[in-house]
Write a structure and sequence with these properties.
The protein is α+β, with helices and mostly antiparallel strands and 234 residues long. The chain is built from 7 helices and 13 strands. It has helices at 39-48, 57-62, 119-128, 139-143, 157-162, 203-210, 221-233; strands at 4-9, 20-21, 27-28, 37-38, 52-56, 65-67, 85-94, 97-101, 107-108, 134-138, 147-149, 181-184, 191-194.
């Protein structure tokens, strides 16, 4: 298996498509513009930031799909000297990527499955669409902007990460917290805990909040202790 990796930014996707570190900085969904790392480089960067996940380049390339970003669509219609056309389904996207009319009239976001028509055949097909709006593009124009992408649903952590030689960094353990802030009782100095971080709770205020009371049971720590003793004796 290849020891080369793409570095995926796992914090977010564009639609179902993964974003990768781009070769000249930033991020990209285009695999042909993604930076390629050695095993050592990918492991080091993964350790620094756990959301930058190395994926085996060889396995990603095997599952890549060719898609077209609607932001780069060119002028539609007939073109001089062109005899191959494809039909785009209007109003449907996966992230920024458009759907195409594929074989047997199905929609498919994978541009490689798009059916190729002559311009007249494309017009005839377009006229048959009932309630479906489409746009006809010259295939060479779309070929020029189509790109290889990889979808998040195809990530296989065992094969693409661990089996490819990457060791997952140990995540720091986080201690559970009650949300309370430590303070000192202003009357007796004992340690108290309360949800309001801007106040030092008295022993009585701590007792009231802990027991879900809407009032403070006593004014002083001595009264609180006496009250507790009476309830215990009863």
């Amino acid at each position: 298996m290849s020891q080369l990796f793409y570095l995926r930014d796992s914090r977010s996707n564009v639609g179902s498509t993964c974003m990768f570190w781009a070769d000249r900085g930033g991020y990209t969904s285009n695999l042909d513009l993604a930076e390629v790392f050695t095993l050592e480089e990918a492991q080091r960067l993964f350790k620094i930031r756990h959301t930058d996940v190395p994926l085996c380049k060889e396995l990603v390339d095997e599952l890549a799909t060719v898609r077209v970003d609607h932001q780069y669509l060119v002028d539609d219609g007939t073109k001089t000297g062109c005899d191959e056309y494809v039909i785009c389904i209007n109003g449907e996207w996966d992230g920024n990527d458009v759907y195409w009319l594929s074989q047997f009239g199905f929609r498919d976001i994978n541009y490689n499955t798009a059916t190729i028509f002559s311009y007249q055949d494309a017009l005839d097909i377009q006229s048959l669409g009932v309630g479906i709006k489409t746009t006809i593009y010259a295939k060479p124009d779309i070929d020029a902007i189509a790109r290889r992408t990889f979808q998040a649903a195809n990530v296989n952590e065992r094969r693409m990460i661990t089996a490819a030689g990457i060791r997952k960094p140990k995540l720091p353990r986080t201690r559970q917290t009650t949300g309370k802030t430590r303070g000192n009782c202003p009357h007796c100095g004992c340690i108290t805990w309360g949800f309001n971080p801007y106040e030092n709770y008295s022993c009585a205020e701590q007792y009231s909040e802990r027991n879900g009371l809407s009032f403070v049971v006593s004014d002083t720590c001595e009264e609180l202790k006496a009250s507790k003793a009476r309830r215990k004796a009863a």
